[in-house]
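Help! Submission page says 'invalid entity' but I think these are all valid:
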Amino acid sequence: MRARSDRRARSRWQDVAPLVAIVAISGVAVVLGREPAGRLEPSRAWCPPSSDRLLGCGEAGVDLLATLANAELRAVALAAVVALVGFAVGTPLGASAALARGRFERLAAHVCDLVQAFPTFLVAMAVLSAVRIPSRVHIGVVFALTAWAPFARLALAQTRVLRDAAFVEAAVALGRGRSGVLVRHVVPNLLGVVAVQLGSTAAAIVLSEAALAFVGLGPPDGVSLGGVLDQGVASMLRAPHVVAEGAIAVFATSAAMMAAGRAAER
Amino acid sequence: MRGTRGGVPAFVTRAGESIAVLAGLASAVFFALRLLPGDPARLVVGDEASPAELERVRATLHLNEPLLVQYARFMRGLLRLDLGDSMRRPGVAAMARVTEALLPTARLALLAVAAGAIVGVGAATLASGPWLSARGRTIVDRVLVAAAATPLLALAPLVTWVLAARLRVLPLPGDPEAGASGLAFASGLLAIPLAAHVGRVARASLVDVGHSQFLVVAGAKGARPARVWFLHALPAVLGPIVTVVGTQLGALLGGAVVLERMFERRGLGTLILEAYATRDLPVLEGAIVAAGGLFVVAQAASSAVHLAIDPRARGE
């Protein structure tokens, strides 16, 4: 028994380790870094990696290590916050829709399907078009507009199973109201299943934020994984290290988020 | 009744949903620009604009009218495909610019869907039939999983660097001479994630039907493996394949915007970004609704194909 729980704890640690490593390395690079992210030094523009500049330089001489480390930390923070907001909003919404049954349940399922299938990119553009210079907060709010849907869909499906369980029927028979059943009996029993979605939602947010920055709708400070990729594509012939580092950073961050989400499965 | 939901024909329900989605998106675009803090006229001409200039923009965009009147005018304009002139190109209708940009994006997405579906189904059939060894099947499975897990945003620049910058076998991003090979390259990149998702679903479905009696009977009657798998097994799993293509269309459209920007190709994505940068509101509103329309039409087409090829989906 104990050996099994040790194995499970080890597996959980292995799932979370890549994300912890990325955050730790980025944190160390930011704290020990010699200069702030985005500082311009045109004389060293597009310089290749060296012992002096470990990841080389990008457009106008920005230090890529400082830029990528800051961008990683901000992307992880944004993704974690938005995924948690989606989790906190979507889970009770989906569960209460399934408990209500009937028309409300069908409507909730339908809206979730539509929001999940619809391109988030278009929604983001529609809303961000009303903002002169989008900040990270604006971008986070836009992602939160759709981030609740996968959690609500999962909670709805899981509550359909739970609502017929004996302990839920017993609580109803004892006179507990719908909100009491939801808070005391249903939501605590579906948290484990719904939490699995946290990783993939956070990974999707990392990618969407990078994609928005890549097409020019990123945060105004330019410190973003998508911003580095954009520089890399523009300088593919003279400074291929920029595109390689940007692409690896995007892939590593989203994969680490996805892997960390698997810890909730165990 | 055939293809009905609660007595209403399925295509009527589907059309109603599509119209509701488009109306919802159009309303979101309209109200986001008018209700969020900030003056839309200042967004267009900037903070330095004179009061007279601001007044001119408000009159052109009808921003002085009551909100509901503006909304009715906007929706009527969408129905008539007339949102007025482009703010940045006076004399050119906003919707003319949108329709001009719609075709290249539709072409790119259509090619990507075709390539993704063919490659995905081909890989799944190859990995399910008797042609490969156990090791070969495992390799195909792992390639599909790896391709599905790799984001297009990371993959596309790297593949472009290898094939266009290093090996010089394909055109570089923004190459004006790229022509058809540029379109094929961009749609090929866009097709990779779709092919991986289609391949994984098709492979799982083919494994499910692989031991069905009708396939054993076909084999016993002397049909060759290619006939058994392509003519008998594949039609039985087309439903899930069409469904997964439908669910991936949103991501495909987002990917198309990224690739248009990366390859500097004309299309709806670049038009939206240009209209956003120059605050050309009529073009921006029309282009976002048109992109939503493209998504809705493609979804409806995938549903129709599903209903046409799978009698179970029609409730028969």
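Support: the input was valid. A stray whitespace character was the problem, and the output above is from the cleaned input. The first strand of chain B starts at residue 4 and ends at 5.
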